[in-house]
Queue: 2 jobs
Job 1
Amino acid sequence: MNRRDPEGAIAEAARKYSNWGRWGADDVLGTLNFLDEAKRREAVALGRRGVSFSLSQRFDMNGPQNGWGRRTNPIHTMLMTGSDASLGNQGSPHGIGGADDMITMPLQCSTQWDGLGHVFDHGKAWNGRDAALTVTSEGDLVTGIEHMAPHAAGRGVLLDVGRVVGTEGELPDGFAITEEHLDATAEAHRVSVGRGDIVLVRTGQLTRVRREGWGGYAGGPAPGLSFTTAGWLHRTEIAAIATDTWGFEVRPNEFEHAFQPLHQVAIPHMGLLIGEMWDLDALAADCAADGVYDFWLTAAPLPITGAVGSPVNPIAVK
Amino acid sequence: MNRRDPEGAIAEAARKYSNWGRWGADDVLGTLNFLDEAKRREAVALGRRGVSFSLSQRFDMNGPQNGWGRRTNPIHTMLMTGSDASLGNQGSPHGIGGADDMITMPLQCSTQWDGLGHVFDHGKAWNGRDAALTVTSEGDLVTGIEHMAPHAAGRGVLLDVGRVVGTEGELPDGFAITEEHLDATAEAHRVSVGRGDIVLVRTGQLTRVRREGWGGYAGGPAPGLSFTTAGWLHRTEIAAIATDTWGFEVRPNEFEHAFQPLHQVAIPHMGLLIGEMWDLDALAADCAADGVYDFWLTAAPLPITGAVGSPVNPIAVK
Amino acid sequence: MNRRDPEGAIAEAARKYSNWGRWGADDVLGTLNFLDEAKRREAVALGRRGVSFSLSQRFDMNGPQNGWGRRTNPIHTMLMTGSDASLGNQGSPHGIGGADDMITMPLQCSTQWDGLGHVFDHGKAWNGRDAALTVTSEGDLVTGIEHMAPHAAGRGVLLDVGRVVGTEGELPDGFAITEEHLDATAEAHRVSVGRGDIVLVRTGQLTRVRREGWGGYAGGPAPGLSFTTAGWLHRTEIAAIATDTWGFEVRPNEFEHAFQPLHQVAIPHMGLLIGEMWDLDALAADCAADGVYDFWLTAAPLPITGAVGSPVNPIAVK
Amino acid sequence: MNRRDPEGAIAEAARKYSNWGRWGADDVLGTLNFLDEAKRREAVALGRRGVSFSLSQRFDMNGPQNGWGRRTNPIHTMLMTGSDASLGNQGSPHGIGGADDMITMPLQCSTQWDGLGHVFDHGKAWNGRDAALTVTSEGDLVTGIEHMAPHAAGRGVLLDVGRVVGTEGELPDGFAITEEHLDATAEAHRVSVGRGDIVLVRTGQLTRVRREGWGGYAGGPAPGLSFTTAGWLHRTEIAAIATDTWGFEVRPNEFEHAFQPLHQVAIPHMGLLIGEMWDLDALAADCAADGVYDFWLTAAPLPITGAVGSPVNPIAVK
């Protein structure tokens, strides 16, 4: 990898690892196509103990966002309250009272899926579409996340790279996770990764910022996948991948003056579904305890019409 | 049931079907406590075919809300677009472009769970707490929906009352579904309902308004559960119940001048988790086709801190 | 005017009435440049009686918007309430309590100014700028309404065309107000219109919809300025114009298949500041009573950085 | 003033300086009643030179808010853009294109008026009303800021205490401005303050934070009015007062463990209209240059129904 030629490296990876046309010209699912019924049938059997884990951070004003890219933390407000109900301010009959609420939030503010319309390469969106016609100010007119509504349920595999490769369960910021690290982790866990899997990569950064404060969690330095894993992401035919970091790939990026080059290959060219800011700690502790690193995973985006991302509360069942 | 004495009937049902204290003074889960690991272990085996269904309506401005209770439809806006990316307006290096978006919505605007802080009876919230201290303008300080994050995954049972009792799959507005209707439907489906189940009751109203226009779907007349089912809801020890209607119970309500009396018993007294505006049509068609009415269901609320409800994309796997 | 050739008519008017370059290449004020200190000095003397009028509709959920162009009515929610203060829920010392609130609204939802970045002609914004580089998803990067913050204070002139030309003070929907109507009204009012004035044209439509319901007030048929008034708007060198209707110009538009052709000339080519949905009724009644149709007017937009419009509460003082 | 007895001092000031009942039981205007037509008639003559000044900060994400009290900075998003117009994505005929936008903001986020429903004392709102019945989660049902829509236009008087009393035009944080400072400043300016005036007090803090960064501007230490000015505020019969600081009164407050005690007297007991975060610098420079410290001032709140505050762009004309 020539660190002085990001444009060339991105173009080469885009060419080698493209899935354009693989599922037809009209495809709106990308690598979620790998997660078929047969795969799902096998996966559901992994819920052996009936224990469930939420992999979502909480959505509130104490989140990591700092205004980068106009991303703010969620604002939750009440339309009706128990206070007013108790005081008789609601005018409802026979003692019934109610509370209602609303939220304003960027869809990229916390635990989320990136939709296929989230990143482009030289004006091209997933499957070779023209980005300018696909994602306008009216939203993603073609590959909105609503199309993924029923699909993101299958076999989850945790690769706890932080635990296997890191120190005290954590990788340092700027640590680039390579294919070798991923393979070594899978081997240490005695777990396989393959077609249709949803792979969860724990770096330990979330554990660290929880202890030390958000700092630059949103947009700053972080451990994450190396640009060089593009081939692995393509070859394994996984359905999706998620990390416990803001941006999935290593930060600072490995090229001079680059910005999220692995996204630039993975989303528009591979059609890979990417999850970010997942909270993998409780699940990881359980996997370490019982030595079982695969499970049934449901991570259903809200079908917001035309959205290029969605908050999600992923549920792993072991 | 004395239609002239809603206050008396509600008080009596509240007394008879209360679960206050059943799971300790600090409980924040209500009937979700019935959904334990053993139950979940059995349920996951129901995903036999690997087919998944989203039970969520789409979230967009074309939804049913009309301003009732200041509930509006979701407003989805873009922070960055493919248009700007294509025009080179984003200033990112090497051809990468991006799109981001945000949403403003009432948490009760479409497919949702009602949290335990959503309804009160005479100033009392779930488990006997003081509503005025529990749900303030800062949110639900005690029973916020974030506490339910990992729990709502278990056995789903569809009771397609519209199909069994109705005409061409639909019950008319104002139709009160009784215990007898629920039992007859379960019997017709050859399916049991019991402790820890998540019961989905299809009335067919959503099918009808999709065909005919929203009309009064949000707040107007609707088929739904009779107030008299309170005992059934309590006795069966189900973990949760959801319908394809705005308000779960029959509208107009069965008492003169009442407002959602079954909510008034079910939420604050039973601690019952209630889902509304679920889209059960695709699942129901499949159940009718294969005759199997139970399945693995994951309906994970977004863990919005202090929320009294949450949008949800429930995923059923058969 | 050839009703079959809107494109030709627009192009001709754009050419004839263009102010591009008139105030230099960097101009961000358009016709507000006509409202200079000398003009303002004369105007302030018009506040003879010390009576003030608000020309703003109220901002709330009972407004005219119906979702057209994703425009909704304002959503006002409370962050803190008197209810919670009274109950002691706020934890403030010595008996102090507080209430706070927030708003979510399109800037075009009610009484407003259109900024110079609100309308384009064939990709050109005010002063000949490239619309694609001027107003992106980050806002109006050049002519944002914040630049107008101190300027919109000067002589206001009411032309109550509804009263002079209409029936019982109201013009019917679809009525095109021509130059002749404007001149006749000014003459009837014994008032002049000239350089730097802010002209308020009352059609009476708001009076009617207040009586009869919003109906199509937002986007539907309405009385308004004829496309043929473009020359008058240019020649009079007024600083701004506002009406009591949603869209300033007559609706349906006078060409077949056109959409707001007068806007297309007036905003990008003339740089004319346009106000819409102003409530002129109380002021008009007073003007009819005392026969004085000019006054001191302050209509200060909120300096929202990069905004292409702003809600405004215009204050007329006679 | 006994710094150890805030409750007693507040109670005493509340009793001495109360205006309850002064304008009748139904009053919703408080001290704005002092600003009558006669006063306004005199004031308008102050616009001698025709120069106008905006006293508003810009509304954008670069504002001072830091989450205190769930107050955030404004979020401005686009519904339509010039980018999309240029690309032909809008589907409008004959080359017309458009841009629209929206805003989400706390009404207390930047330059603003506090409404009469903004602060309470021991559960009492302005004029002795029950706060719990006046400001609920539905808004201020009685004294909403919409009632003030036409009134806040009159004589403005700048008291540049920073310039007269401070060092290089600025008072240090924690500096309590007393009656003596106000009088000395007025004397230095050769300007009088009296019934119906809108008094603007410049501390210079905004100048400082502009130079040094927001720091604790929102809620932290600041110069401001001493609690002891309550009598002056009452005796002078001013209509309103505004400062260039977040909170009008000195911070930290002068009592141990108090929170905004002067608000607690001024809003619910006097009915005083208070403005905060006004940008007085350009106006102050002009006043220093020409020695004229009074002017015509229009500071019209947006008539948001039920609001306890409003953003405002005040316009001073000299």
Note: Chain B touches chain A through 109 residues (CB under 8 Å).
Job 2
Amino acid sequence: MPNGFSFALLGADGAARLGEFRTPHGVVQTPAFMPVGTQGSVKAMRHRDLEEAGAQIILGNTYHLYLRPGDPLIGRRGGLHRFIGWPHPILTDSGGYQVFSLADRRKITEDGADFRSHLDGSPHLLTPEAAVDIQARLGSDIAMVLDECLAYPASRDEAAHSMERSVRWAARCRTRLMEIRDGSASDVGATNPGQAQFGIVQGGVFQDLRDQSAGAAIDIGFEGYAIGGLSVGEPIDLMYAVVADTARRLPEGQPRYLMGAGTPADLVECVARGIDMFDCVLPTRNARNGQLFTSEGRINIKNARYAEDDGPVDPACHCYTCRTHSRAYLRHLYMAGEMTAGALNTLHNLSFYLDTMQRIRDAISFRTFDRFRQEFLRSASRLSLDS
Amino acid sequence: MPNGFSFALLGADGAARLGEFRTPHGVVQTPAFMPVGTQGSVKAMRHRDLEEAGAQIILGNTYHLYLRPGDPLIGRRGGLHRFIGWPHPILTDSGGYQVFSLADRRKITEDGADFRSHLDGSPHLLTPEAAVDIQARLGSDIAMVLDECLAYPASRDEAAHSMERSVRWAARCRTRLMEIRDGSASDVGATNPGQAQFGIVQGGVFQDLRDQSAGAAIDIGFEGYAIGGLSVGEPIDLMYAVVADTARRLPEGQPRYLMGAGTPADLVECVARGIDMFDCVLPTRNARNGQLFTSEGRINIKNARYAEDDGPVDPACHCYTCRTHSRAYLRHLYMAGEMTAGALNTLHNLSFYLDTMQRIRDAISFRTFDRFRQEFLRSASRLSLDS
């Protein structure tokens, strides 16, 4: 374990786990949801809104921060925490996912990913070592290894070759981090000596490849393990099955992070399968599009039925939006194109997600998780109340 | 005086006045600045941000609210305060200014203003009586009479004819309000029985017309008086002179409102000439464009010189933005197109405006207003620190 990061398993209820991890910027209770702060800001939120909603950790996107304002600038300003004024834990991804999304603007080789910036077309090379160095300068509390992101569907051969490359990249990432830790790469300008590094399990929907990938990651040795390459279009039952089988392969004493998921139901279902950490743009992006998550299902605030509805978005919610404003007003703000609509909606959706995580933790603690799960799936996970 | 509205003059320092007015939704200390909440929302601000910045009253634009979501809907929801969830005082304009801005989409007759909606091209007729009825349904604490807004420059004849029409319209507005108050127009659906009504002095830059307009308004009798048709392109010294001479003509025991002004220097200079109330989009609109007001002058946060500036926007400011974030981060958010940039910048600019009003009130109270004014004009009113 490096200085600064540790994980403690505090309880369990079936496969669901209650825990906490410590970082140089504070403690995070798990299961945890991490709001996505793409460019060093969770869209439409101020930091104090995040604190109020109950966020203990946020995610920063290395690809975006690398391109603008640049990791050297952020490093000179003392790292990402200091630059953005967020004193709590931060996890950064490796930048790989965004680079792979660039489609015809990138080319993958064994060395890394050649790509052209979506901002100005400038050429860049993202190697495993570069992904480590960039994140070291950003100084996040948890850095992710660079992995190859497989599209769905993929053949078993494609999945195997991709997974094997990801294993080789993961080893290079770990080697590079060790050089930074032992001082032999001091020119990198790392800003957080307590930074942890998580490995990522790939292998598509092929469980033997997933097992092989998990084993290789564990052999390399990381402070935590993520499951990548899911929530990319595969059937939901298949995703849940891969999550369950893969989580089972990971060390009990370290955190397990399901990348890029998901819906409220996904959070509950994957906690039930042993996951500790989540991130997703769903609550923030959907808020800006007028879709709100409630304890009784999703609503689209632009629906005409809310034009004269004096009630709050969710009577069970205690967030500022629900305490202060009616559905009628929120609909008006949305229809009128006011940016405050995005702010109020995002505050609600993130409050709903983070409240859900708190209720999950409480339920595991009281060993009532299965009852909570059944009730939750009957109400909050309904897709829409509008039709 | 109607039930619900009263003004008290609490002190003076030269022509500068300290006072307060009471409304059905609370007290406002004057001199006061009213943030503009065009569509029932001060752009990029949540209500609690406004309260924190020190806003005691906000302005709603009747034209926008009439078109969307419509005054009948707002009336059914109990009025504008209840609809938007703002429990403090609200002033509404008459809608005239926006209608006159429609240029070739409107036609003015003695009856009122025929116009087509900027949203969908639908035809509408805004008469003096309609402007009163709409604002009665909105239920603002202070309603404005419908006046004709004169473009600058205008000939003396044009200014005279326009002013005379405004006087006739003002009389019709007052008559209509009296019908609402005495119950003979109960079908209007007024939502605030304590609503006050302000007259508006017009007359362009011709002081004899201004005097005539002020006299006519006083003869009709309103709860307060506004000076309209300034800050429309005339030289600043001319504006200040008209303000001084017109304010002098208005009753000492009633509030005086300079519509649509202004810069920080305008606020101080016009308080010095006897003005009690202001509104302007400058702090909010400029914030969204990256221009920030500080105690040492304006800055454009997009300027490259701020890219690595760890200091706050304004070291003398105590707002959340200045307490939490650096110029470097605010510049990054602006350049990255994050909507949080608008929110943080607006919170700062409004805090600066409202702090300035508090400092003005303190200075009048301590009879040090002239010293404050000289110091303020030497520092905060500088146009730019960037060049």
Note: The mean pLDDT of chain A is 96.
